[in-house]
What we know:
Layout: H1 12-15, E1 44-54, E2 65-68, E3 71-74, E4 80-89, E5 93-98, E6 105-109, E7 115-121, E8 128-129, E9 135-137, E10 143-147, E11 150-152, E12 157-158, E13 163-169, H2 176-179, E14 185-187, E15 193-207, E16 213-216, E17 221-227, E18 239-246, E19 251-261, E20 264-269, E21 274-281, E22 283-292, E23 302-306, E24 314-317, E25 323-329, E26 334-339, E27 345-351, E28 360-367, E29 373-381, E30 391-397, E31 400-406, E32 410-416, E33 423-430, E34 435-436, E35 440-443, E36 448-455, E37 463-468, E38 474-476, E39 478-485, E40 490-496, E41 503-508, E42 514-517, E43 525-528, E44 531-532, E45 544-550, E46 556-566, E47 572-582
Parallel strand pairs: 1-7, 14-19, 22-28, 29-36
Antiparallel strand pairs: 1-4, 2-3, 2-5, 5-6, 8-13, 9-10, 10-17, 11-12, 11-16, 13-15, 14-15, 15-16, 15-21, 17-20, 18-19, 18-21, 19-20, 22-25, 23-24, 23-26, 26-27, 29-32, 30-31, 30-33, 33-34, 33-35, 37-38, 37-47, 39-40, 40-41, 41-43, 42-45, 43-44, 45-46, 46-47
Amino acid sequence: MKNFLKPILLFLLALTIYSCNKNESIDGEGTPGGTNQEFEFGSQVQRDFMGSIKDESNVAISNALVSIGTKTATTDAKGIFIIKNATVQERFAYIEVSKIGYLKGLKTVAPTQDVSQVDLVLLTENIQPLPSNSQIQLINGTKVTFNGGFEDASGNAYNGVVNYSMNHIDPASPTIANEMPGMLLGKTTADDFEMLQTYGMLHVSLTDASGNPLQIAAGSTAEIRMPIPSVLSGAAPVTIPLWSFDEAVGYWVEDGFATKTGSEYVGTVSHFSWWNCDINFPTEVLCLTVEDANGNPLANVNVDLSFPGNPFPGTGVSNALGRICGVVPTNQTITYTAYDDCGNTLSTNTIGPFTNATTWINETITIPNSPALQTITGNFLDCNGSPVIDGYVELSYGGYQTIQYIENGVFEISTLICNGSTSGFVEGLDYNNSQSTGVIPFIFSQPVSNIGTIISCNSIDEYVTYQVDNGPAVTTQQIMISAYNSGTTGFQVLADSETSFDEVNFEIDTTAIGSYSLTDASAPLLVISEIDLNTDTTTTQNFEFIITNFGGPTEYIDVTFSGDFTDVNGITRSITGTIHVRRDT
């Protein structure tokens, strides 16, 4: 898969703005524990958030503490958190993530009216003793030299052991959008609020022997040296503003400058957490709509935006309405490239330049020959058979993952299948109850794959579910037979319902993975309350079943089925269902 370089100009304000409204502004306010009235980020609102927390090796971090306003949550085994009804500003939310052994994750996003997706990478905290020469350095040449003393959090002089942790973020990092604090948004010395283009970021933390925070003493300074990426050296200005990240408000503040010395930027600072070398510029707010040739919106399409002098494109992903919104530079011709999850280019062209800084710009991107749009649908129940109201479903195919938040027990995930995959996997997780469905395989059925009903309950090893018309889902856990029949090379599943006297008897004369209908030679026999769905073929022609998995003995058999049948009163009814059982023989 193509390794895409993430932005130095973070289009989408760190990939989080997904809706456009001409009454909105990029100005705003907001802190983890309250609001800041210096900028107009809109009124206080309640918003929902779901996010993924990973380390630098893309490994999920569990049990990390996530804070948004006064709401907190911890990440599950997959590094996922869910926070509902957090009080934030309409266009500004500030997220903090803490985990021992890592730097604090600090993310600023513009929340959406539905669930805002927030992804963070926590950087490892490498604590080491400060050398006797008071000079620390990373392998890439980033260097800090302390010129003076230190003090504790109360401002008292400190003369004991000093430990430090040091991290540098290269503008070319493919995960910069998820690693960096806040977003590339800063307050200038003239109190203007502008977007930033970074040439590198540096973090240093100082602690005593007990892990208590230390700071550079009042009146003392430190010299910082950061390498200039070779692709930026020609355009790098002789002097560049320095910006420190204000953790109390969630944005960068202009604080001094650095000077280009050879292939480095050199500056002097008087305190530490995060520092950033950036140029600032006026911006436009751009909203894109991604469509196919017929004008249908396309979701989960990646779009890169680049402009002259910027070797690292900004990246956004279209939402369910095909929308992507964010900030781009004024008076620049923008080149966009749309591509799928596999890195295949779908379309490329230019837009702009845009010159009216007070107007929201709306543009449409047409994908003339887009891959087939695949939609995966189903129902998601908890251990009690009730719809999951606080969870998520993860779709995996060909090495790619998509996660959808679930709040009503129904999921519908749309994505472009880009690598010819004919099958995938889903796993549902009930976040509040820490229960999982386990990984369930399925076969793509264009244009919609109905997975049926999945149950998130670790204590349930196997089950059959079905739903007649719009009635309640019936869950059958008492599996009596799930056997392979060598005589017919087929198999049978026989079960009793725990909630009624219904009997489910499903016989299929094949074990081959694939989709089948009643017109096939290997037609299913499904009996519910002695209703034989195969007795009247004129009313069940659209009935089908899909075998998605047939394992060996003690391994899983997975089947979904749907269609019509005639009940004992001659009334045509519809039915959908799911089989997830272990094979006995």
